[in-house]
Amino acid sequence: MIKRHTRRSNLKHCFLTAIALLTSWGLYGQTSFTIPWGDTPESLGLQTGEEIERVGPLCFAVSPDADIYVADTIHRQIKRWHPNGQFGGIVVHNVRPTALAFDNRGNLLALEAHTVKVFSKQGELRRTLRLPENLPLIEGYAQEVFDENGLVGVNDPDETVYLFDPNLPTPKEPLQIRKGRRGEGGRRIFSRIENRKVELAIAENADERGPATVQHAFITPRFSDTIRLGAVIYRGMAGAKPSIICETEEIGPQSVRLVVRVLASDGKETAAYELPNRYFTTVYEKFEVLPDGTLWQMLTTPQGVTFTSRRVVP
Q1: Residue 6, C-beta contacts closer than 8 angstroms, at least 6 positions apart
Q2: pLDDT digits over 89-143, tens only?
Q3: For a disulfide at 304, which of 36, 95, 180, 219, Cβ 3.0-4.6 Å?
Q4: 234-278: pLDDT as tens digits
Q5: Percent composition of the chain: helix, strand, coil (DSSP 3-state, to 5)
Q6: Domain extents for the chain?
Q7: pTM (predicted TM-score)
Q8: Of 112, 123, 61, which is closest to residue 90 (Cα–Cα)?
Q9: Over the range 193-223, which residues count as b (16 or more CB within 10 Å of their CB) and which as e?
């Protein structure tokens, strides 16, 4: 049974820590629901044990219709929920994707090892791409699959992007190699961590040989001198006046904070939001920001998997 949340229940508790930031979450306009753990079609699988890591859904993606597609890792399925929490059915069977995304045609891209499967939103398999085995792809946090101008893209840990023609099932090499993800106007965006400071480069004509950097933005921890930055990930452009969305992990002595940074196109930070980060299981894709500025977060808890949405960019 799906549990819906109200402003006075668990949702308020989950976002209490955000008050400390310059820009707090607030409660207006939020949507939230929880999918329980279990083995029924309407639930999500959970693997637990005394000496094994807890495993639940690793990733999710939001469709152009605002439906939420979740990788049920334990049951090897992709399931769909509507934004009001209503179950939309099992869409795909016999898959274990570690990254999901939608392309510009509304197809679902599912990355599993070095294979990308392309499904219709109803779950029909349209094509399969078997990428070169020598690509340095590493399953885990920040490993993504995505669409870039009609090409299928994947990235390595050094933020090098490999782009493939979706109509070639067994490409021997990438069609293009670029440094960083595509931003506004075709510019590339990538980051470099130096001690407690992160340089975000916004570059022209960035290929595998290196970019011609035109702008820089600097991101520093917000909370104290004992905090250091962990992962810094560019998550895309959003909003009417396109803003740069970055995900940062800020590591302290007692906790790791998950922060969404919003930057103007010139690299100046305009807002920051702290998200709940007490995950019950390992998750590779914690949130997604849609082009209209709506953020969806997937948070695993002992009770189930909670999805919450809120507008973060006007």
Answers
A1: none
A2: 999 999 999 999 999 999 999 999 999 999 999 999 999 999 999 999 989 888 9
A3: 36
A4: 898 999 888 999 898 888 888 889 999 898 877 788 999 999 999
A5: 5, 50, 45
A6: 31-311
A7: 0.87
A8: 123
A9: eeeeebbbbbbeebeeeebeeeeebebebbe
